[in-house]
Amino acid sequence: MIAALLPLLLAIQPASGLEQRRATIVQFEIKLAAGLSPAEQTAATEIFAADTRTIRRCADAATIGARYKAEKRFSGSITERRNTAFAALPIELRRELDKVPTGHATRVFGSVGVRRVLIACTVPRVPAARPDTV
Questions:
Q1: What is the pLDDT along the chain (134 residues), one digit of tens a residue?
Q2: H helices present in 1-134, as ranges
Q3: Is the dihedral of CA 108, 109, 113, 114 positive or negative?
Q4: H or E element: which one contains 54?
Q5: Whole-model pTM over 0.85
Q6: At residue 84, what are phi and psi to the nearest 5 degrees?
Q7: CA–CA separation, 113 vs 118, rounded Å?
Q8: Out of 2, 59, 105, 127, which could bridge 117 as a Cys pair, Cβ 3.0 to 4.6 Å?
Q9: CA distances (Å), origin 39, targets 24, 32, 42
Q10: Residue 87 and residue 13 in contact, taking contact as beta carbons nearer than 8 Å
Q11: What is the DSSP letter of 12?
């Protein structure tokens, strides 16, 4: 019974253990054009998902973003955050990042009119403890 509760206990303690990990994380986001039908939104999301599944390093996101800009397919942005604490991310996103290798994109997620993926550009690591200074 205790073994069954351990994953639950770890999930409700976001700042402990592995959640102290830090990494450089890129968010690749596209904005869907206003007025798209549900079918057009689905098609755009599928294009973005297929393209982001090809990402193997963070620079690939910039290449795809540049192609989108040249094609005038999507508008969007790429945001890099260095030394990001995993504890600062929603648990669902932490779990998604844990499912993909470093340099690969998560599944597409988002809200109305916006689609995103996250990419851990560096291997998530727990920072080394600093010796106490007196």
A1: 344 433 443 444 444 556 789 999 999 999 999 999 999 999 999 999 999 999 999 999 999 999 999 999 899 999 999 999 999 999 999 999 999 999 999 999 998 899 999 999 999 998 877 666 55
A2: 2-11, 38-52, 58-71, 91-99
A3: negative
A4: none
A5: no
A6: -75, 130
A7: 17
A8: 105
A9: 35, 12, 5
A10: no
A11: T
